[in-house]
Amino acid sequence: MSDTKATLMVDLIISLDGYASAEGWPGWWGLEGPEYLAWLEEEGKKDFTTLMGANTYRVMSSMSEEASEDNSGFSEEEGASLTGLAAMPKIIFSSTLKEPLVWPNSELISGDAVEAVRELKRTRSGTFSTLGSLSLCRSLLAAGLVDRYRLVVFPVITGKTGRERIYDGYPDVALDMVDSRTFDGRTQLLEYVPRVIDGPLTRD
């Protein structure tokens, strides 16, 4: 029986053709609807510890601070999901950031992220969930540390403008679906249990 106490979920948003963002497009490709934003707000209230790298920390802490200001330009739903991140416990993996971190409830770890997460899973309880940080997600998956792999797939193909290809550098991975739902009649959540594999799957 495993001595792992905590679980780890990689959590990503993605275009249909596998990109995390696209040049010239707004966040969420401009397709975030009220059902999805309400779900994001509810997820933000759960007892998760969020894992991220330095670049994601810089971007999201800035957006969270901006969303808390008057006339921020964010919708009410967007603002609620972004400002809610400040209250969530966060672990930041970085060799360049220095303490104290200005974003509330942020813990800095400067060592090897994979080994740190392995130890966190062994010694802590609850759920760890990634935010952005594609290289961190890839490393954790390749190391076999990911218990759940959750995607929110936005209905757009950005073959010309897409940036940040999510699956480049991944190992082969088998995925067993454990949950799915549709937001706003167009955006799909897919949740899997991942297994890193050495070769093609065979039929039973």
Task: Based on Cα principal axes, name the global outline.
Answer: globular
The CATH architecture can be named as: 3-Layer(aba) Sandwich
User: How many H/I helical runs?
Assistant: 5
Q: How much of the residues is beta strand, in percent?
A: 25-35%
- The residue-averaged pLDDT reads 89
Indicate the radius of gyration in whole angstroms. 17 Å
User: Which CATH top level class fits?
Assistant: Alpha Beta
| Number of structural units classed as domains | 1
**How far is the first residue's CA from the last residue's CA?**
25 Å
**Structural class of the helices, strands and pairings?**
alpha/beta
CATH superfamily heading: Dihydrofolate Reductase, subunit A
Largest sheet: 8 strands, mixed
- Portion of residues within helices: 25-40%
